[in-house]
Amino acid sequence: MYFLNNPHNKREKARNATLIVEMKGESTYLTNPEETEEEPKKFTFDFSYWSHDGFEERDDGYLAPSKPNYADQVPHEDDY
């Protein structure tokens, strides 16, 4: 099982949504937006891929990594 985190969409931006997801290795942490002082909930997956930010959009629409933690949509052969 894996978890993929994508950028905010138009609706989320219009609602001034805040980022409540953090990924470190195989772990994904979710923060309660109403109780930000609480310990985040931790979930462990086989793989966690970060794609919320850390990319640059190319002319062809491809989102190329600009930071080492960004995972593009290209299958990661080493993960299967």
Account of the protein in words:
This protein has one helix spanning 10-14, and strands spanning 2-5, 21-24, 27-30, 41-44, 47-50, 55-57, 63-65. It is mainly beta and 80 residues long. It has one domain. The chain has a 3-stranded antiparallel beta sheet with strand order 2-3-4, with no helix packed on it. It has a two-stranded parallel sheet with strand order 1-5. β2 (21-24) and β3 (27-30) form a beta hairpin. The termini are close together.
Compact summary:
The chain has one helix at residues 10-14; strands at residues 2-5, 21-24, 27-30, 41-44, 47-50, 55-57, 63-65.
Characteristics:
80 residues; mainly beta; three-stranded antiparallel β-sheet; 7 strands; flat
Question: How many angstroms does the end-to-end distance come to?
Answer: 11 Å
Strand order of the largest sheet: 2-3-4
**If you compute it from the alpha carbons, what radius of gyration comes out, rounded to the nearest whole angstrom?**
14 Å
Strand count? 7
Task: Please describe the topology of this protein.
Layout: E1 2-5, H1 10-14, E2 21-24, E3 27-30, E4 41-44, E5 47-50, E6 55-57, E7 63-65
Parallel strand pairs: 1-5
Antiparallel strand pairs: 2-3, 3-4, 6-7
